[in-house]
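step=encode ok
step=design start
structure_in=
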């Protein structure tokens, strides 16, 4: 009886202390948190653009995915669908999150056709289309740090993350663990190719998760803005 009683108390003790031990292991991880890099500052806002809603669509004070589908948006429906299924559906519940697609004036009818294709059974409340002149679109695109040129029809498969302060977010050093172990040269990640499911599902989704964590910590007063991935990389390489 005594042995059974001891075993019971031992099991109860283990069950009690395991969660406590797990929380203690997580505690230092919070302080090692590294925010998503600012790869570019001063992205211009959407002043002067019209929109498909009565609300004024702006980048300031939002976490925004900015995309460009061009004069023939239906030809870029695959990228838009990937963005909807892998990013919008996952993050639409987060406060101040939005997707903004920048379009040339005159593509409104084509966008209505695109909506029927990708909206399926739901209203994409936080997915907006804005319309501007070629000059406005080019000016906005030039304010972004892009890895590719904007096509002549004002489209690109790549999308951008812009934070609440009009900073473009990404990775100063985008090497993965295998590339670091192989001592591959560092490269930047400024934008995300929507045609490549692996890029959207893994890199972009992870980067957005990190960015939302940053803003959640800021609201709680737990965010240390002096810690950056770039500084850690310099230490590692030094």
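sequence_out=
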């Amino acid at each position: 009886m005594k042995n059974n009683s001891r075993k019971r108390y031992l099991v109860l003790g283990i069950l009690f202390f395991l969660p406590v031990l797990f929380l203690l292991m997580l505690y230092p991880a919070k302080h090692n948190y590294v925010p998503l890099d600012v790869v570019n500052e001063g992205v211009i806002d959407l002043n002067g653009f019209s929109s498909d809603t009565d609300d004024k669509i702006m980048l300031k004070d939002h976490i925004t995915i900015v995309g460009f589908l061009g004069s023939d948006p239906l030809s870029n429906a695959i990228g838009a669908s990937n963005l909807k299924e892998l990013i919008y559906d996952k993050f639409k519940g987060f406060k101040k999150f939005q997707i903004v697609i920048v379009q040339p004036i005159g593509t409104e009818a084509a966008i209505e056709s695109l909506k029927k294709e990708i909206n399926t059974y739901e209203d994409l409340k936080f997915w907006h289309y804005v319309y501007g002149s070629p000059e406005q679109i080019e000016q906005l695109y030039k304010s972004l740090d892009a890895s590719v040129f904007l096509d002549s029809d004002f489209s690109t498969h790549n999308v951008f993350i812009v934070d609440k302060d009009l900073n473009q977010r990404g990775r100063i050093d985008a090497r993965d663990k295998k590339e670091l172990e192989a001592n591959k040269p560092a490269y930047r990640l400024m934008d995300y190719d929507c045609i490549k499911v692996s890029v959207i599902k893994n890199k972009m989704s992870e980067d957005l998760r990190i960015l939302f964590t940053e803003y959640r910590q800021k609201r709680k007063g737990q965010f240390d803005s002096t810690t950056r991935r770039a500084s850690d990389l310099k230490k590692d390489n030094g």
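step=design ok
step=annotate ok -> Residues 26-32, 225-238 have pLDDT under 50 and may be disordered.
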